[in-house]
Amino acid sequence: MSPNLYLLWTKLPSMNDLVEICIEHLVDDINELLKLLCLPLVIESPFDLTPSLFLAILESILRNRLPISSEIRDSREMGAKISAMKILLGILEDDILENDIGLSDIDPRKLAAGDLDEVVFVGRVLCDLGFEKFGLGRRRRYSDLNEQSTQGTTTNLRPSSSQANTISNTTTYSVYQESETAPTSIFDDHSSITNRLPTTQSSEPKCIHELDFSEFSLDEMMEMNDDEEDIDLNQSACDCSIQSHVASIPEASSAGTSQPSIRYEGFIGRASELEEIREFESKNGQLPKSSTSPNNTTPMRNPTQHTFPAQYTLALLHERARLLEELARLKLIRASNSLHS
User: Fold this and answer.
1) Tens digits of residue pLDDT in 120-176
2) Are residues 240 and 301 in contact, defined by beta-carbon separation less than 8 angstroms?
């Protein structure tokens, strides 16, 4: 938190005056904060701020879960709610703000029960944390609060002795840093408690034209592709050896072999599957005996288990040719049987 925001907190009026002035703005601010945090909720009054909603707001701001057991989270008993609010207040005051702004006077039992004074004060603190995180400070409203409360509350505008000592000893929060260009995140530093929470790297969404691809070179991308191929080869479910894969791949055509001509104009005619299979067989030789012989007892390997794309395509074509041949043989047998009958 910036020093200006801290000094602003020390100049706030008493809790009773704060509730009367802030209650009309709190609902709007909470709804705006819920929208920024992508929480699909809308409150209508401060009484809608339940302990579970307080936890959801703070955890969404921190982007980490608080160290609260699942038993306490799932329980609906008042004791569990009080325990959760104790942890929330402790993390807010000791680990995030690291200064006394009045949270030590909050009774967690009243906060869990939905007492208006406690709920408004904690909700106001969460709004400040959230808006400071997104760079949407509400200093204008706090100046309005001070102007509205100057009459009859001059004594309350002075910081207490403990707050004055805090101001003299501490000039800034460790979790806030002041910037002249733009407000920084309030969670640059983590405390001992938040360090135990699961950390996740998160960033604001960017457009595709804002991404920086300069750090990826062509050599690095080629190395990444090579590594992926090695991993796929080692993790392959195929039970045959690598030599069998390499041996089954047809050798590349020699330099003297004529390549098919390429047309750049005209129309593409209807393709014939049988002609393509015959042309493939004529170019690559006869099919292996093991795949064409119907009496062969050796089962064919599943072509989907091969990792090389070339052999995968070749195996599919072999399997297709074998099935067509088998289908033609069955049709011939059926035709002969019908003639004899």
Assistant:
1) 889 888 888 888 877 765 544 444 444 444 444 333 333 344 443 433 333 333 333
2) yes
Q: What is the pLDDT of residues 47-92, one digit of tens each?
A: 888 999 999 999 888 888 888 888 898 888 999 999 999 999 988 8
What's the pTM? 0.38
At position 264, the amino acid (one-letter code) is: Y
- What distances in angstroms separate CA 176 from CA 22, 47, 74, 179, one per listed residue? 24, 30, 33, 10
Residue where the block lists tokens 């993790």: 235
Q: In angstroms, rounded to a whole number, what is the distance separating the alpha carbons of residues 70 and 92?
A: 20
Query: Among 66, 109, 70, 69, which Cα is nearest to 88's?
Result: 66
Q: Please give the structure tokens belonging to residue 199.
A: 């950390």
